[in-house]
Design a protein that fits this description.
Strand content: 15-25%
Shape: globular
Largest sheet: 6 strands, antiparallel
Oligomer: single chain
Order of helices and strands: EEHEEEHHEEEEEHEEHEHEHHEHHE
Helix content: 10-25%
Bound molecules: flavin-adenine dinucleotide, iron/sulfur cluster
């Protein structure tokens, strides 16, 4: 699998392999071979069909390295142990690897479409880990909590689901996503594809220094994975891939102003951002500004907790479109009515903009930015592409 000059190479752990020949017999395209020392996989032949993974009695076959240049057969024959994974997350030229699995890469590329150009991480962002677990080798998490965030009377069922990883390492940064593999098979009899969910907690866990993370899941009528997750009881086990995403990341700079615009579960990464600021840099000079759209207050995930964050840390604008007797208000309307303050922020080189949530919000938000910028004699199209190329403008919609 090639990602911007990188190769994910299938390798066999010589320390565990018992040389039973099962994998060589199983491989349908003769990608596996051996000498007197080791069983090895030829990177030029292997097509990642995964046929050899489950028959291997030891698990030695299920090993992967991300490399710039493939280990040759001669290299692999000489190994007495697997080489360590080299640091390869960021490719020269500043572009970032969001995911190494094609299907996840495609989901993220779609979610970034509204950017209108190449996604670039904030320069100050911490270095993310991607693709530690994949479909061939998922992490198993335990559900440590599952509670409804939206009012019992609300139309939408949005849940706060906590996944505990026990002793498996699962390092995440605010703004990354993880994959959930729903059990069972699709209509064609193939295992379900993983679905992506944004991490809603800060990097050090839902509670500080716990090896867990939170997700914000909206139940989709008829949806496979969201219903599966929303119905999971505490203690249930879930297969997880990832983490994914290397650009929609929080600037790790206390001076950064962060303008966050979301609807519904698009609030998930912003809960992570806000909690990170609150915990790690409560006296940061940078400003957090949130525009959050929902039908009614009852439909707002994190309504209660977000209201409790001090105004000094986070300025909130809630916009409701279906409150009886009140005019409809969408995030773009509020961006316009707060135009003076927003344009002032946009002219500050420390300001980052993040848009997350329903795809439908993109156009309205973009038009609102263009309008307020016009009023301040700023060319939004020019400013936006400048910010994007600088890692200061980010879109993730689905
Ligand atoms: C980067 C990224 C981050 C995301 N973050 C979040 C998040 O934080 N929280 C969140 O809740 N979601 C998030 N999503 C969306 C999430 O990945 C899923 O798409 C969502 O949960 C729906 O998945 P599902 O399996 O329940 O629905 P699916 O089974 O995939 O179905 C999708 C929709 O199609 C409809 N549908 C399916 N089959 C049919 C059919 N035969 N006929 C008619 N309609 C049909 C379903 O009713 C459903 O509404 C994110 C997506 C991306 C790309
Ligand atoms: S993944 Fe498929 S092609 Fe690659 S070594 Fe295993 S069986 Fe052969
Ligand atoms: S099946 Fe597993 S244990 Fe057997 S030779 Fe292949 S890698 Fe080694």
């Amino acid at each position: 699998m090639h990602v911007e000059g990188l190769l994910k190479q299938h390798v066999i752990d010589p320390e565990i392999c018992i040389r039973c020949n099962t994998c060589e017999e199983t491989c349908p395209i003769d990608a596996i071979t051996h000498d007197d020392n080791n069983y090895v996989v030829d990177a030029l032949i292997c097509n990642y069909c995964m046929d050899c993974i489950s028959p291997c009695p030891t698990g030695a076959i299920d090993n992967w390295r991300v490399v710039r240049e493939a280990y040759s057969l001669a290299d692999q024959f000489s190994w007495s142990e697997l080489p360590a994974q080299q640091e390869v997350e960021v490719v020269e030229g500043g572009s970032a690897i969001e995911a190494l699995e094609d299907e996840v890469g495609a989901l993220l590329a779609e979610a970034r479409k509204g950017l209108g150009g190449k996604a670039v991480a904030p320069h100050s962002a911490s270095k993310p880990t991607v693709n530690l677990y994949n479909r061939g080798k998922p992490a198993t998490a335990t559900i440590a909590g599952n509670r409804r965030l939206t009012d019992a009377a609300a139309d939408s069922d949005v849940r706060h689901v906590i996944l505990d990883f026990g002793d498996q390492p699962f390092p995440v940064l605010e703004g990354q996503s993880i994959g959930i593999i729903p059990p069972g098979v699709d209509a064609a009899g193939k295992p379900h594809a993983p679905r992506l969910y944004s991490v809603a907690s800060p990097r050090d866990g839902e509670k500080p220094n716990s090896n867990n993370l939170a997700l914000t899941i909206k139940r989709e009528p008829g949806g496979i994975c969201s219903n599966y997750l929303c119905d999971l009881p505490r203690g249930a086990k879930v297969e997880v891939t990832g983490p994914f995403g290397a650009t929609f990341l929080m600037p790790n700079d206390p001076a950064a102003n962060i303008v966050m615009i979301c609807t519904g579960t698009g609030s998930a990464p912003f809960r992570g951002f806000t909690e990170r600021r609150r915990r790690a840099m409560p006296d940061a000079p940078g400003h957090l500004l949130l525009f959050f759209g929902a039908r009614r207050p009852q439909e707002l995930p994190y309504f209660g907790p977000l209201q409790k964050v001090p105004e000094k840390l986070l300025t909130r604008h809630f916009c409701y479109s279906r409150v009886p007797g009140e005019p409809r208000s969408y995030v773009q309307d509020r961006i316009r009515s707060e135009g003076a303050g927003v344009t002032e922020l946009l002219q500050d080189a420390n300001t980052h903009v993040y848009i997350c949530g329903l795809r439908g919000m993109e156009t309205g938000v973009d038009e609102a930015f263009a309008d307020i910028c016009r009023f301040a004699a700023i060319d939004w199209a020019v400013l936006k592409s400048e910010m994007r190329d600088n890692g200061r403008y980010h879109v993730e919609t689905y």
